[in-house]
């Protein structure tokens, strides 16, 4: 009421005066929110809330006018934001953000959330106030709670009915028509991003039906940030069903002793940038959510893109250039852009990159993986662990509901499949002198649940675009799973691609397509190549890993009389290996920078997503972790 009446009676600079009043009113009521936990009150800072409000007010002041100020006032009195013509969408987003800020009353809960509402484009939302829902951790008992309520003038906020929508192809002839080859994580996210921007597209996937396959996938905060910018309702579903691991102790351990080699805090970069915490979610659940959000009429299953041909304007019967796509069943279609999201063995990539050796590269490791019924005793404190060994390593992560997903990597030649019928027994023999926690996970696994696959990646390339064709996801930057970033980078690709294509106007000629795709490549190539390098480096660490002098001597020593006995005696002295010492020093110096680059270096602009707070015990689970939980004790190189 104050906001509306103030705007109506103020002359000269109504928005400046109104915005000032809004800032101080919100600042007084929201900056300190009383959170009641277990009968004890504590004060919680609203972190980036004030910064976000200040930024929005500044934008409104710069772009505002008296008429817009009246509109803001009347919208606030109604408790909602009126839809404006598309020509003023940017201004509507700013005004909606200010008008929808509300006081949040938080009650006793680990599920209650204080969040900043996110603004949505008019084409993808019927309500500009999007309040974050509580974060649920799968498999964890939740205490009785009462959901957080947003109150404005004593009235509850309007229900959030935001959902993505895609303009029909004939409703916006100025947008390029996009053909997406492949319906995996990258292809579906690209489709959702295009849909949210109103860009017409058709996605073609070779399978006739999506079926459950694969295990859980890790979605780090950079991927969740991109998903929020692409489609907030989809991001909410994913975060509701996922299991948070990013607020627990994660790190590297010695495979044989089980002692920590390095603990790192993945919360820091998320809190610094106001991002969701890293979580894990079943891959088929993720695909089901993404597929369900794409308009069915924009997807065609059972068709695999086999080849394409660019047709110039001179050769086109319509006088306009286009791309013709051929499918494996002999049928054809046309469009303006092709997105190759058809995986590491992409047929489209083979036509894009015809020079030199462009085959996938074998990593040197085969991988056994399964999900089993197993939980560590301190599962509330431990997220994922990487056990290091010479020529082999083991990765395990809590995935919720009392289950653990594990990966066992073994250095060997490609194409050697274990068909013995006792894969679990062979793994127990391979890791027989390793930590008890590693072996316990094998013992809790059913033989039929174990899968094996050789690990391949592709060397980084710095040209993802050829003509009107762009590579995306594994077709562009297939990487080893050591950083958990394969799918995450594909999601970033989809966001950037839609962002650059949204600025294309086909009525001005198709030259804008080439410019947009080139910009896509510039924004994505270097970052994906860097993270690809981190993933390869992590695997290289195990080829040289030796905990002590004398551990795992090179095989040629067996030909030297007495050499193996010498190294065995030396190992018993437990003198740290120089490589291990130097490696720990380097990791302790660089790990925070690496994690920050991965988490905070994403492509999402501030206009597409607003930072928000993550109050432990309110917005995210509150872990019972000591203050020094992530601290390594001792001199770097010898720390424990």
Molecular structure report:
The chain is 35% helix and 19% strand. A seven-stranded mixed beta sheet has the order 10-9-18-19-20-17-21, with helices on both faces. The chain has a six-stranded mixed beta sheet with strand order 12-6-5-16-23-22. Strands 7-11-8 form a three-stranded antiparallel beta sheet. The longest helix is centred in the last third of the chain and has 34 residues, at 511-544. Helix 7 runs parallel beside helix 15 (486-501). Residues 1-171 have low confidence and may be disordered. The chain is α+β, with helices and mostly antiparallel strands and 640 residues long.
Which helices and strands appear, and what pairs or packs with what?
Blueprint: H1 2-9, H2 14-30, E1 32-37, E2 40-45, H3 49-63, H4 66-78, H5 89-99, E3 103-105, E4 149-151, E5 178-181, H6 185-196, E6 201-205, E7 216-219, H7 221-230, H8 232-241, E8 243-244, E9 249-254, E10 260-264, H9 267-273, E11 279-282, H10 283-293, E12 299-301, E13 305-311, E14 322-327, E15 332-335, E16 337-340, H11 347-352, E17 361-373, E18 382-388, E19 392-400, E20 403-411, H12 423-430, H13 436-443, E21 451-457, E22 465-466, E23 469-471, H14 474-477, H15 486-501, H16 511-544, H17 563-571, H18 578-600
Parallel strand pairs: 5-6, 5-16, 6-12, 9-18, 16-23
Antiparallel strand pairs: 1-2, 3-4, 7-11, 8-11, 9-10, 13-14, 14-15, 17-20, 17-21, 18-19, 19-20, 22-23
Helix pairs in contact: 1-2, 1-4, 2-3, 3-5, 6-10, 6-15, 7-8, 7-15, 9-18, 15-16
């Amino acid at each position: 009421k104050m906001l509306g009446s103030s705007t109506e009676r103020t002359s000269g600079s109504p928005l400046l005066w109104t915005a000032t009043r809004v800032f101080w009113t919100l600042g007084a009521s929201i900056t300190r929110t009383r959170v009641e936990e277990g009968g004890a009150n504590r004060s919680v800072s609203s972190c980036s809330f004030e910064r976000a409000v200040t930024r929005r007010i500044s934008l409104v002041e710069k772009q505002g006018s008296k008429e817009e100020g009246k509109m803001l006032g009347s919208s606030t009195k109604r408790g909602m934001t009126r839809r404006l013509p598309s020509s003023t969408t940017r201004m509507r987003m700013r005004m909606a953000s200010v008008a929808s800020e509300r006081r949040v009353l938080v009650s006793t809960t680990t599920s209650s959330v204080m969040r900043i509402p996110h603004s949505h484009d008019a084409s993808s939302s019927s309500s500009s106030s999007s309040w974050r829902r509580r974060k649920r951790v799968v498999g964890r008992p939740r205490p009785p709670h009462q959901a957080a309520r947003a109150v404005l003038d004593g009235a509850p906020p309007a229900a959030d009915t935001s959902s993505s929508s895609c303009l029909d192809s004939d409703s916006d002839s100025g947008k390029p028509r996009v053909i997406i080859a492949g319906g995996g994580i990258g292809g579906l996210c690209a489709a959702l991003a295009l849909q949210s921007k109103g860009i017409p597209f058709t996605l073609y996937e070779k399978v006739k039906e999506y079926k459950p396959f694969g295990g859980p996938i890790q979605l780090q905060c950079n991927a969740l940030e991109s998903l929020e910018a692409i489609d907030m309702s989809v991001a909410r579903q994913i975060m509701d069903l996922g299991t948070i691991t990013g607020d627990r102790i994660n790190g590297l351990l010695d495979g044989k002793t089980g002692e920590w080699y390095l603990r790192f805090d993945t919360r820091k970069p998320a809190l610094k940038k106001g991002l969701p915490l890293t979580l894990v979610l079943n891959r088929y659940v993720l695909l089901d959510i993404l597929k369900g959000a794409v308009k069915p009429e924009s997807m065609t299953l059972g068709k695999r893109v086999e080849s394409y041909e660019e047709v110039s304007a001179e050769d086109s019967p319509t006088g306009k250039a286009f791309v013709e796509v051929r499918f494996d069943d002999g049928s054809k279609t046309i469009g303006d852009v092709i997105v190759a999201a058809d995986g590491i063995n992409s047929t489209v990539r083979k036509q894009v990159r015809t020079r030199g050796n462009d085959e996938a590269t074998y990593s040197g490791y085969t991988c056994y993986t399964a999900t089993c019924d197993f939980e560590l005793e301190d599962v509330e404190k431990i997220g994922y662990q990487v056990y290091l060994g010479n020529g082999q390593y083991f990765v395990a992560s809590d995935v919720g509901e009392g289950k653990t997903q594990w990966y066992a990597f073994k250095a060997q030649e490609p194409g050697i499949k274990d068909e013995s019928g006792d894969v679990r027994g062979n793994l127990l023999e391979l890791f027989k002198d390793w930590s008890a926690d590693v072996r316990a996970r094998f013992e809790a696994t059913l033989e039929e649940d174990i899968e094996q696959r050789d690990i391949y990646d592709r060397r980084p390339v710095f040209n993802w675009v050829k003509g009107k064709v762009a590579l995306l996801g594994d077709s562009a930057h297939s990487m080893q799973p050591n950083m958990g970033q394969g799918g995450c980078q594909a999601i970033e690709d989809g966001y950037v691609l839609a962002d650059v294509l949204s600025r294309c106007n086909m009525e001005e000629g198709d030259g804008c397509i080439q410019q947009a795709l080139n910009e896509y490549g510039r924004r994505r190539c270097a970052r994906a190549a860097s993270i690809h390098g981190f993933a390869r480096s992590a695997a290289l660490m195990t080829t040289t890993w030796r905990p002590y002098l004398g551990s795992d001597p090179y095989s040629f020593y067996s030909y030297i009389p007495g050499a193996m006995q010498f190294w065995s005696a030396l190992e018993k002295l437990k003198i740290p290996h120089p490589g291990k010492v130097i490696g720990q020093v380097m990791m302790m110096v660089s790990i925070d920078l690496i994690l920050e680059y991965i988490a905070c270096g994403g492509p999402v602009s501030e206009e597409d997503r607003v930072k928000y707070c993550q109050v432990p015990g309110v917005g995210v689970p509150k872990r019972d972790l000591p203050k020094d939980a992530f601290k390594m004790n001792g001199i770097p190189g010898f720390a424990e």
